[in-house]
Amino acid sequence: MPVDGTTAAEAVLAAFKDVTGDTAPRGLDTLPQDVGEWTSLAHVRLVHAIEQQLGCELPERFLAVGPSLGELAAAAGTGGGTA
Amino acid sequence: MDHERPAAPRPADGYRHWQAVARAIGTDSDPMVRRRVRVALLATFTGDFLTELLPVAALAHRLQIRTPAVPFGQVEQALLDARSPLRDDPPDYVVLAGTATDLVPADFRPGDAATAKRLSDEAVARWTRLWDAAAETGAQAVQLGFAPPAVDPSGAAAWRSPGSVSALVRGVNQRLSEQAAGRVRFVDVERIAAEYGLARWSDARYWYRLRQPCALDATPWLAAAVVDAIAVDLGLTRRCVVVDLDDTLWGGVVGQDGLDGLQLGSGPVGEAYADFQRYLAGLASRGVVLAVCSKNDPELAERALAEVPGMILRREDFAAVSAGWEPKSRQLAGLARTLRLAPDALVFVDDNPAERAEVAAALPDVAVVDLPTAPSEYAAALAAVPGLAAGTGTADAGRSRSYAALAQAEALAAQHHDLGDYLRGLEMTATLGPVDAAALPRASELVGKTNQFNLTTRRRTQAELAAVIARTDTFAARLRLADRFADHGDVGLVVAVATGVEVEIDTLLLSCRVIGRTAERALVAAVGRWAVARGARRLVGRYVPTDRNALVRDAYLDLGFRLRDENPDGTRVFVHDLANGAPAASPYLKETVDAG
Questions:
Q1: For an engineered disulfide with B402, which of A80, B268, B465, B488 has Cβ 3.0 to 4.6 Å away?
Q2: Which tens digits make up the pLDDT trace of B84-107?
């Protein structure tokens, strides 16, 4: 189910805090290189948490470390491509 | 650990919850745990997600698991390479795990039955060789079965299509599970995946990107199954299910509705109760002891068990029946005493939430099943109790009869004022036998779970026990006891090690069911005969105190040993001079020998 951008952004930031234990230092602009705990395993947990929270499924390419939180929120906000 | 111990989650709570609990556990040491073990996952896939959840699954068994890191794909290297850190410092358990992808080379074409047969042979050879390598290190192997692919070109006919990957997986699982019996613990992942839902078990995105074969929400189910297998190996299982009667075994209240007015066997509700009884009968057939705890008139409860139309369970399926008007916690404590079981061996099943709450508050070690309101869901709720559905290691249909015989023996004791008369009246036969491959799983179970009559409480995995017994300077014997009421099966074990002119009894234990029957005399006499035959001059016995074995503090004095030493920690060392022969056997036991 597609969700609106605000909901997706809030969910992504909440999922980030849930997984890493910290608030995203640069909000939706936060990138993996900004956060030491953002490992490949933490990234998978983050994607899983976002999918659970928003009831969406992100495309496979988002399972690789790289996108910012904002990019994850944008993908999730459009239903992740496969709602 | 100064914070509250996290509650054990259920697999259905999902990965996020389990991962949060994993973070909460941290690396603190919990003084309440029953056992601490090290478990290494040797997997051909990314094992991090499964590894991090093993300590969480351990909470349900009050077990603490540490997980040494092993890089993924290093299965052979970890076990076969002489320089592997795992060989220097072996864990208690190695969990061997692969995927269906391991079974087929890149050029395999589904439908090629001849090649599939060869691949099956190669897979079985590969993994069983790893079992041997694990045993050489002293670690107990736990083999995970392979999950079938979620999608198969043969579709619904995949299981029956020779040469399909699904059929190959099933065949390998079948062969490995057969060869695992009595050797390694086999986790039936195929069955767990089917229970969970094969289509959801894996997530292709995770496989291709991460080499993670399970969907994250399926991982808690796998972790729980792995730790259940370890708990079974350690003997940390729930052995007795105690059930209420009214609205639990049948619909209705026997005191109000009468024997003929209950719902059982017909109609949607009655069929559900009958199926729940069938589930309980299945547990009993695997060695789980059944008992009744009911607020009812005792005579009416007995009549109901015998006469309610449609009963699947029979009176003789229950080792003990407690019916009366006392609080259920008191009744349960009485049942535990009669059956010589600790409260942590009991599972309590009752439809009444108030009764459940009373028992949970008074007896926190009893597993109280949060029974749903619909009887159609009872079996699933009971199946979700950790350590019960996983199997007891040595399925023993006679065990329930053995527990029932305890109550009969108590009645006999009441008739005799003289202990000797009582013991003679039991007409006991002790059969001594070697601890061979067939007997090893039960011996390992006894080593893992015996608390009260256990002189040294040396816990060993099956592999560790096998290694000790295999030494040429070691004597080991199991004892099977039968009396006029029941054959109790293998209920005693002795292991002794020769050192120069002395033979020291390393392990001497008896199941709670046969304490007070003088069976320990038969075991110690057997060690004595072995020691005399090899020219030893002294037999040494040791008592190492625990919080559960004060009962046997003076056992060696009773056996004719003298106290040689006592340490500040309470350990006592006893000695028996063999100049006049081995210690005497029991006059109350007829001894026979099973050569194995």
A1: B488
A2: 888 888 999 999 999 999 999 989
